[in-house]
Design a protein that fits this description.
Blueprint (H helix, E strand, L loop, with lengths): L16 H8 L6 H20 L5 E8 L2 E8 L6 H7 L24 H10 L6 E5 L2 E9 L5 E8 L9
Antiparallel strand pairs: 1-2, 3-4, 4-5
Helix pairs in contact: 1-4
């Protein structure tokens, strides 16, 4: 019987639970820890790049069985052009490619798994990045042919609540 040769998109590596477990070195029930670690690593890297003492905020909340993680920092923020490049699943995008270490920046491309983990866990809410006066809402999925489908909307972030 002749063998059939298949071609599979590598974009699935960022959406598939097993592939994400291999990339992160953690089981899917630890993906929340992965998200927090990678976001905090990114915040530390941003402060380090800006040569400022890090000021990092972390909040975790949960409702309807979905954990929501919010990290804020005093780094320069991710430029919109870099966010667009992060969404290209065929390329690695990192300013730390040569600085990977076992503790920080181990993946060197952490935002792709961070975008794919919600999909792998069947969370339908968007990942939100607010930087440089733009609110990016990003949701990944697959189309009927299993190709990556990206929904990326850009708006102005909501105005901060007035303090009394």
């Amino acid at each position: 019987m002749p063998r059939t040769v298949f071609s599979t998109s590598r974009t699935a590596e960022f959406l598939d639970r097993q592939a994400l477990q291999s990339q992160t070195g953690q089981s899917h029930d630890r993906f929340g820890d992965v998200v927090i670690k990678e976001l905090l690593d990114n915040a530390l890297d941003a402060a380090e790049s800006a040569r400022v003492a890090p000021e990092i905020g972390l909040t975790v909340s949960s409702s309807d069985g979905v954990a929501r993680v919010c990290v804020s920092d005093n780094g320069p923020g991710i430029p919109a052009a870099v966010i667009e490049r992060i969404l290209d699943s065929t390329r690695n995008v990192s300013d730390k490619e040569s600085l990977r270490s076992p503790t920080r920046g181990m993946q060197g491309n952490a935002f792709k798994p961070l975008l794919g983990i919600p999909y792998a866990l069947r969370v339908t809410e968007s990942v939100v990045i607010e930087a440089h006066g733009i609110r990016h809402e990003i949701a990944l999925s697959t189309d009927p042919s299993s190709e990556l489908a990206i929904r990326h909307t850009k708006t102005l972030p909501p105005a901060p609540l007035a303090r009394r």
